């Protein structure tokens, strides 16, 4: 284990070394050159690449777009994100996009290819699940992406075609199903993998549960656009006795040491930056918690410099300091040693609750909802105290309760991106505040534009930028 910790520390130091926000984690691997590291050492590097990207820059995007945070009116780091003023030439998200393809996704593919040839099915499942999770984030952000022809480099097609979102989803389900159908070891993975598994420490039961929960999420995401596909897939899972996560799938190796901190903290709160005052408490979530006397408020936001707790209206970053004293507003409470979550325990329970509510799964929707709320409060170390009982009304009222509480729970795990996807899919919460300084004419952002560096280099990529207000295919509600 000491070898693994030392090696992982070296990975984190390499990935988190930064001279500017745009350079953070911009350590792309050349997909045209072979990767010679053994599978058990390549795997944590890939996972940290996913965690650093999804849990860093994308977490800032998600935190602002899910209205957990808004840009401080006395600084300007995230004005473009908060106002939806993101174009295809934006280098920040172009760097994150290319990092995932040339870093994490490429490494997972090497592991999948090698382990399939060797019949090392524990490594194959782990890499397939993490690669599928990473692809899911990308297709939910960008829509069409390259997948089946991707990652071939000079060994294959260097100009992969882009597949529509539904085809990407179907491919991910097929890949996970194939991995689950193999002879997965019971108990622990092989010793080398177990020592270097920064998610579950080699616990293969949890990897199977992670695979099932990711499948459940992919099916649930299609609830409005392809309900027949979603229903059939979920019913098949329950009929086969699938078990889902009862703990979080996360990377929990961060510590309050330079280059080893949580990537969101490292990017926004680190003392190495010019300011840690950019992310302020959005009034959207703040007022919801305040109105419900929810003690999670103090676990999500810091007390204002001038004392007390106060939220700021979304997108009011152009307010003068005379109009809004920035010292009077709470800022985001982000811990340097917090995990990066892929699927949290609370999220798993809320997914199951929705599956049961829709009649596609078996169990007690109310009990699963309560398990999700309890998990959120427990994760933040505060007492629920009987708050938020499961409503006794009809489907929409109960779905609203499930998704609204998922939204709050995901704030505690810095999973704002996932919360935003769910708001687009369901319309809940139904009290989002359009940013005052938004540039899209009163329309919420629906996606990220494909970086123009991709379309310039690949003639098979979409050549016409898709407007940021164009919904992703599953966003029809």
TrEMBL record:
Keywords: Lipoprotein, Signal. Pfam families: SusD-like_2. The keyword Signal applies. InterPro entries: SusD-like_2 (IPR041662), TPR-like_helical_dom_sf (IPR011990). The keyword Signal applies. PROSITE patterns: PROKAR_LIPOPROTEIN. Residues 1-22 form the signal peptide. This is SusD/RagB family nutrient-binding outer membrane lipoprotein.
